[in-house]
């Protein structure tokens, strides 16, 4: 579950999710407008919440931080951290259900990932699980643990 963390106090359990979102930034942010109450990561702030999107390329945030002089942050410097609900909304037209997610997470036959290794053994956070599922279903991409990148899956090409 996402919550606010100051830079330097972000738990290791969230760092992979931040990296997954950063590497998917061009895909996730292509039509995304940072909405009020959504989470984002900023390299000097940490994980915070949008108080208001000012609509001019800046977000307003009430964080107390030496980096922030007037609480305006360039949205281009931020990485959107979609919540489970955000990811479900992105996949509405794909009918991404809890049941389908569970099938994906418990598959060990190589549904995009290595045979014999279930995605539920790879991803820990609910957000990671939904993001991995969304990226496979929408963009035919899988998370490479080794390379720490999104890669095209060969699953649908076979």
How would you describe the overall organization of this protein?
The protein is an alpha+beta fold and 158 residues long. The protein contains six helices and nine strands; from the N terminus they run βααββββββααααββ. The protein has helices spanning 12-23, 25-28, 84-90, 98-106, 119-122, 126-139, and strands spanning 5-6, 39-42, 46-49, 52-53, 58-60, 72-74, 79-81, 141-144, 149-152. A hairpin with a 3-residue loop joins strand 2 and strand 3 (46-49). The radius of gyration is 16 Å and the shape is elongated.
List keywords for this structure.
4-stranded antiparallel beta sheet, 2 domains, 3-stranded antiparallel beta sheet, 6 helices, alpha+beta, 158 residues, 9 strands
User: In one word, what is the shape?
Assistant: elongated
Count of helical segments? 6
CA(first)-CA(last) distance: 36 Å
Number of strands: 9
The average pLDDT score comes to 86
Proportion in helices: 25-40%
Briefly summarize what is shown:
With 158 residues, this protein is an alpha+beta fold.
Secondary-structure map with pairings?
Elements (H helix, E strand, L loop, with lengths): L4 E2 L5 H12 L1 H4 L10 E4 L3 E4 L2 E2 L4 E3 L11 E3 L4 E3 L2 H7 L7 H9 L12 H4 L3 H14 L1 E4 L4 E4 L6
Antiparallel strand pairs: 1-3, 2-3, 2-7, 4-5, 5-6, 8-9
Helix pairs in contact: 3-6
């Amino acid at each position: 579950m996402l919550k606010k963390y100051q830079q330097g106090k972000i738990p290791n359990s969230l760092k992979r999710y931040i990296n997954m979102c950063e590497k998917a930034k061009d895909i996730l942010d292509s039509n995304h407008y940072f909405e009020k109450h959504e989470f984002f990561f900023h390299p000097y702030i940490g994980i915070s919440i949008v108080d208001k999107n000012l609509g001019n390329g800046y977000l307003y945030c009430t964080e107390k931080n030496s980096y922030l002089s007037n609480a305006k942050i360039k949205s281009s410097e931020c990485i959107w951290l979609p919540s489970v609900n955000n990811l479900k909304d992105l996949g509405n037209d794909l009918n991404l259900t809890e049941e389908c997610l569970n099938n994906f997470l418990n598959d060990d036959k190589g549904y995009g990932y290595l045979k014999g290794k279930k995605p539920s053994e790879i991803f820990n956070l609910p957000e990671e699980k939904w993001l991995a599922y969304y990226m496979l279903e929408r963009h035919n991409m899988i998370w490479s643990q080794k390379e720490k990148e999104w890669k095209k899956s060969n699953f649908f090409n076979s």
